[in-house]
Amino acid sequence: VPEDMTEPMAINLEFAKFLFDEKSAVFIDARDSEDYDLGHIENAVNIPFDYYEEYEEVIDSLDDTAVHVIYCSGEECSLSMDLADYLFNEMDFEKILIFEGGWPQWRDAEYP
Questions:
Q1: What is the distance between the alpha carbons of residues 66 and 57, in angstroms, rounded to a whole number?
Q2: Kind and range of the H or E element at 21?
Q3: Cβ atoms 98, 28 nearer than 8 A
Q4: Residues 6+ apart with CB under 8 A from 15
Q5: Mean pLDDT of 90-104
């Protein structure tokens, strides 16, 4: 992960799994809570982009210097990019990664 990021960076399934296994990133699910409840990456924090104002306490509890991996429902879904832009540009989070494959790719790989 680059030290000085100028924008959120896209990552693939292998790198997402590496960060998950190393416990070196916080995973954030940008989908709505109904989708999150149907299945999500183990220990992921749910911050639905469409309702992020209601999750200010959750956002404030996160370490803005840690690595955060944001995902949603895969390539056709822009919620992760929207939330990544918000956290990076508005909340000054330093290391934001976007897992483009999202929940479908993670689930299909049978990861936790």
A1: 17
A2: helix 13-22
A3: no
A4: 97
A5: 97
DSSP 25-52: SEEEE-S-HHHHHH--STT-EE--GGGG
Rounded to whole angstroms, the Cα distance separating 44 from 92 reads 20
- Tell me if residue 74 falls in helix, strand or coil: coil
Residue recorded with tokens 């992020």: 52
Q: Is the distance from CB of 21 to CB of 42 less than 8 angstroms?
A: no
Give the global pTM.
Answer: 0.97
Tens-place pLDDT, residues 17-72: 999 999 999 999 999 999 999 999 999 999 999 999 999 999 999 999 999 999 99
| Nearest-angstrom CA–CA distance, 76 and 92 | 26
